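Researcher: We plan to redesign the surface later, but first we want a full-length starting point. Tokens attached.
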């Protein structure tokens, strides 16, 4: 029981830290309660899709329990993915907002330091409205320092609120400069220029890999849905053709035919369609992850691409199916 309580506290603490980094002002217990309610409601909705299977089930109770467990598992995965994506994307957004203006802010701090201001005043007077969220954080640091908190501790708390290695490294270097008592102006100026050089290098890399990104995107959400739609239509046509062939009438010459008829089970068009949707989902997830890894070096930023890729690929598959149905409608079976 103690281990379970310790594990629960650890999980809650980790969730609280993630909510702080995402700037989501929601109590952990409230978030868990909302997620449980949403999971239950979603599981009932998903269960409705299995109503036809329940009607033909020999044992209704067993079938109900079986399909509800499936619905519950699917609901848990969806709610977990939604919460994880929501928190992760908000963390990435806040991180980007800070990193984009950090170099400009540090250059203003350098200017103030060269003018003879101490480090704390240099930071306060470098705040500009255009710095957005960073300006708000510096004001929070100023209030903490005025209330008696050490500047170094305030900077550490500031960096811990963001999932940014760049920001953490900058704050660590600044704190080490404060401790050593060296020339801070040169140090802060070098930090600012290193950030700018890194950002310029990232832009150049993104420009170089655009071709690969386009190729993966087109293959995942354009070519794959069309090929799946074509395969689905071929299966439908072949099923109708074979259903119209009377094997008994040609049994005497079946040995000379290049086709072999079997009474075994085969893939139906409906089963293949389910297979298509599953594969389109997997392809969309993998494509988004690969593109995100190539462009950003992390799969987290690709979470926002997954629903876009999934919706576009399914829509294109349905459109391709409609077009191919119209093209082959005059085929005589």
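Model: Full-length starting sequence:
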């Amino acid at each position: 029981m103690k281990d379970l309580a310790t594990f629960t506290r650890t999980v809650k603490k980790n969730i609280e830290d993630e909510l702080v980094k995402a700037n989501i002002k929601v109590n952990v217990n409230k978030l868990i309660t909302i997620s449980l309610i949403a999971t239950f409601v979603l599981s009932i909705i998903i269960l409705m899709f299995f109503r036809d299977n329940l009607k033909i089930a020999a044992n209704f109770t067993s079938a109900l329990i079986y399909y509800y467990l499936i619905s519950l598992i699917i609901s848990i995965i969806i709610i977990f993915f939604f919460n994880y994506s929501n928190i992760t994307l908000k963390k990435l957004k806040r991180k980007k907002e800070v990193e984009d203006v950090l170099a400009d802010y540090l250059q203003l701090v350098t200017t103030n330091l060269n003018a003879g201001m101490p480090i704390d005043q240099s930071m306060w007077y470098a705040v500009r409205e255009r710095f957005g969220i960073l300006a708000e954080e510096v004001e929070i640091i100023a209030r903490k320092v005025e209330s008696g908190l050490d500047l170094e501790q305030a900077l550490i708390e500031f960096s811990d609120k963001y999932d940014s290695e760049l920001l953490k490294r900058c704050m660590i270097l600044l704190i080490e400069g404060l401790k050593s008592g060296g020339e801070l102006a040169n140090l802060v100026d070098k930090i600012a220029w290193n950030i700018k050089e890194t950002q310029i290098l990232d832009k150049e890399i993104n420009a170089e890999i655009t071709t690969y990104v386009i190729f993966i995107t087109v293959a995942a959400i354009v070519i794959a849905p069309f090929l799946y739609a074509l395969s689905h239509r071929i299966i439908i046509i072949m099923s109708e053709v074979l259903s119209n062939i009377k094997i008994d009438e040609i049994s005497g010459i079946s040995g000379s035919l290049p086709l072999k008829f079997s009474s075994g089970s085969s893939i139906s068009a409906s089963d293949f369609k389910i297979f298509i949707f599953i594969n389109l989902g997997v392809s969309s997830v993998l494509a988004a992850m690969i593109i995100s890894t190539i462009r950003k070096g992390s799969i987290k930023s690709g979470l926002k691409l997954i629903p876009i890729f999934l919706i576009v690929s399914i829509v294109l598959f349905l459109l391709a199916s409609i077009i191919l149905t119209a093209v082959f409608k005059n085929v005589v079976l």
